[in-house]
Amino acid sequence: MGFSSNVSNFFYDAKIMSWDVILTLLNLVEKKRRIGDVTPEGHPGYGGHWPEFRPPQETDSRCSCPGLNALANHGMISRSGRGISFVDLDRHVRATYNISSTLSSFVPHYAARMLKKNFSRDTFDLEELDIHNGIEHDASLLRLDAAFQPNQSTKHVPYIEELLAAASGKDKDGNDVITTKDLSKLLGKHRAVSRATNKEFVLKPFHKLFGAANASLLLSTMGGRVDDLHSFLHHEQLPEGWESRVRQSRGLTLVNFNKLALKIEFGVREKDWAQVAQEAAENHGTIV
């Protein structure tokens, strides 16, 4: 990446961060979107009616992100998961999950830089996003480490079931919900166990925060609701009638996204799982 690209990226990031602060402030004063009208009219999923769900075929491309895989499974981006435009991804992530224009633009721009591609002109396959220690990282909430499962699109069902069973909260309607404390607890466990069992384990501070940020989306967009998360995580399918739980007029901003991620990260207590990690290491490196 040349000097001109670095300068361009710097000014892009500065513009995005500045505009994101403005969007965050607008969210404080503008009315929230009405329930039933969160998904924009004219976009797939308006009124809770999502395009037909089709499980991926053997030759299709998928990645470690359930949210992106769900877009492909419902045909909002290429069902094959191949030849996806960064621009289209930005547009569909924004409308489907009510993500702010700043956050929905920043993430695919970052992915394009990681893949050394042009955001405006190039395309990518979902599996390309799983470059190890790029965006994908060890000790994630839903996947085994790449050292144990190189194909990061493969769901680790025990982790999903453990997450759903860990829900300790209730929403105002009495639905079981996952809380920030639940996510912090499980991230701490996964980090301790991975560190003890994976000889290739690496988890930089950036990836710690990225893992917490990914986990936070289960709370913000899905409301942490176990009934919705069951199909979303097991099948990477959007439930019929579902809409994003983010109701702010300008969507989920980078400011609020990172605020929730930091709350989760600051609650992680890896040392609390030292005994579990030791037992896992003694059990021939078996993930528990």
Characterise the protein shown here.
By secondary structure, the chain is mostly helical. 47% of the residues lie in helices and 3% in strands. The chain contains ten helices and four strands, in the order ααβααβαββααααα. The protein has helices at 3-29, 66-73, 86-97, 101-114, 157-165, 180-197, 205-220, 226-234, 254-266, 274-282, and strands spanning 84-85, 123-124, 169-170, 176-177. A two-stranded antiparallel sheet has the order 1-2. Strands 3-4 form a two-stranded antiparallel ribbon. α1 packs antiparallel against α4 and α6 (180-197) packs across α9. The chain is globular. The model has no long low-confidence stretch (mean pLDDT 95).
State the end-to-end distance: 41 Å
Secondary-structure element string: HHEHHEHEEHHHHH
Summarize the biggest pleated sheet: 2 strands, antiparallel
The backbone outline, from C-alpha atoms, is globular
Overall radius of gyration: 19 Å
- The assigned structural class equals mainly alpha
Please give the order of strands in the largest beta sheet. Answer: 1-2
Low-confidence stretches: none
How many helices? The count is 10
Give the total of beta strands.
4
Strand content: under 5%
Q: How confident overall, as mean pLDDT?
A: 95
Helicity, in percent? Answer: 40-55%
